[in-house]
Amino acid sequence: MKHRTSPSTSRRGSLSSLTLLLVVCAAGAGCEEVPSSAGGGGSGAGGGGVDDGAPIEIDTALGPVFVDLDGPAIVDASAAWELKVDGLDVLTNGGVSGDGASKAFPLDAETWVTDRVPADVPFLVEDKPGGAFISWYAYDGSAHTIYSRYHVIGVRRGDALFKVQVLGFYGEVDGAPVPALYRVRSAVVEAAGPGETTEWLDLDGTAGGSSPTDADPSGCVVLATGERLSLTPAEAAERSDWDLCFRRAEISVNGGDGGPGGVEAVDLQAEATAGETLAEVMELTPESQLASFEAVDFAALTDPALEWRGDGVVSAFTGKWLDRTVDPLAPRELTWLVAGSDGETPFFVVFDSFEGASSNAAGVVHARVKKIGGSLP
Fold first, then answer.
1. 212-242 residue pLDDT tens
2. What's 217's DSSP letter?
3. DSSP 112
4. Which secondary structure element, helix H or strand E, spans residue 300, and what is its range?
5. Partners of 297 in the beta sheet?
6. Rounded percentage of the chain residues whose pLDDT exceeds 70
7. How far, in Å, CA of 203 to CA of 184, rounded?
8. Using CA atoms, how far apart are residues 34 and 37, in angstroms rounded to an integer?
């Protein structure tokens, strides 16, 4: 029965023909080789070739490592920095992670061969609290549209277990589509079996529009009762009664950095994210994914292998810069657009390879950095 609530390793080989490769012979040989594809001008826009960037090595075994992209150089935390590499986390100097104005956005690997901010970058992502819902959607940059991955998310409050599936991001007001009016389904899950499915319509995550302020409330829910709440970030941080809050494209849980409620969550299909293409996600519908929701039972949510967690700090890099499907770990083939700590200077960053990596550590990260032209979004 359904109950409806009322609306309201080097990963850059594929770019070798596009980037400058400088091979320095063994010590004492005194020879260099620069491929003819460089155009005879060396790196940089003035020579007709591609600026291959400045290399930097980041030893993740040293604890939090702060990177100044201007150097690039490893610096002290008190200096101006853009990136902090802490174990398998890459954070930016902005949002909840620092007092700077750094943000970031992942771009196609081939973007590296350009030297300007692409005109179609929709936004930059600043560090914020987040957790199991961080990859709930796939983004179509060509149409600036969000599509749910329809992953089933387990939510746990004490001994109470729930399953949640996001069905859509767009609602309708006066006949016009409105983003951040969510459609979601949820159900309590007990040893005797799942309870009735609740379908939440028009959960209000609009938060005042595309540039929400701290005074604009989020739409929050209590999964056990079906209650809806409208809470500002400050109010949500003080209250333990809500389970999930919806704010633009972000979904937070009331646990960890997300709130004082002790709520934890887990993406039951997180391992599938890396292999999901945008085209595949766009084909999914609430009807086609109902079976995956109904299949989640008490045994699935009490599997001891699950990694339940409250919200923590997430950045543009979270869940995207590492390829966790390989052992040892390797970086993904992406070019990262990063805003300087001044909020104005744009950089490109690529992670080329890991040295001494394992299944749960990156070892020494080999990266390259270049300052580029253009204006940040």
1. 999 999 999 999 999 999 999 999 999 999 9
2. P
3. G
4. helix 298-301
5. none
6. 87
7. 8
8. 8
